Amino acid sequence: MNRVMLIGRLTAKPELRYTGTNTPYSRFTIAVNRTFSNQNGQREADFIGVIVWRKQAENVCNYLDKGALVSVEGRIQTGSFEKDGNRQYTMDVVGDSVQFLESKGSRSSSGGQSASPYDYQDQAPSYNDVSVENDPFAEFGDSVSIDDNFLD
């Protein structure tokens, strides 16, 4: 079974793109805190690429911004491409469902602190201090060309 459930914060505002046959999609990255601390007592985060399609992509782009707390449920999809004669491998989460875990105004009205029930220290890690400086997808590029045969 290939199912993934993640909770994290968007590292940038998602952008809506279209395939050659006008199918909307969005590719974005979420920062997911690890449940343990490193040797310095700090939490580290994993930066996970997510792609969503059609209406889900439109909703994500219309209603979410950088730093928004989301839950993503989907599946892992691997792929590869050739760059400069070298085979590059990819791994993304294809999001079937993206849930918005806080209202748009709750982050700014509470001084940057999330009003989400997922921020209790003893139950789940806090996502308020996730750094995007180590985002491995930051320089991935501006556009992705995806063949419609890839959709199904």
Task: Characterise this structure.
The chain has 152 residues and is mainly β. Helices cover 9% and strands 42% of the residues. It has two helices and six strands. The protein has a five-stranded mixed β-barrel. β3 (24-37) and β4 form a beta hairpin. The longest helix is centred in the middle third of the chain and has 10 residues, at 54-63. It is globular and about 45 Å long. It starts with a strand and ends in a 43-residue tail after the last helix. Residues 109-127 have low confidence and may be disordered.
Topology:
Blueprint: E1 4-10, E2 17-18, E3 24-37, E4 43-53, H1 54-63, E5 69-83, E6 86-100, H2 106-109
Parallel strand pairs: 4-6
Antiparallel strand pairs: 1-3, 1-5, 2-3, 3-4, 5-6
* Approximate strand percentage: 35-45%
The number of distinct helices, counting runs of at least 4 residues, comes to: 2
The quaternary state of the protein chains shown equals single chain
Shape: globular
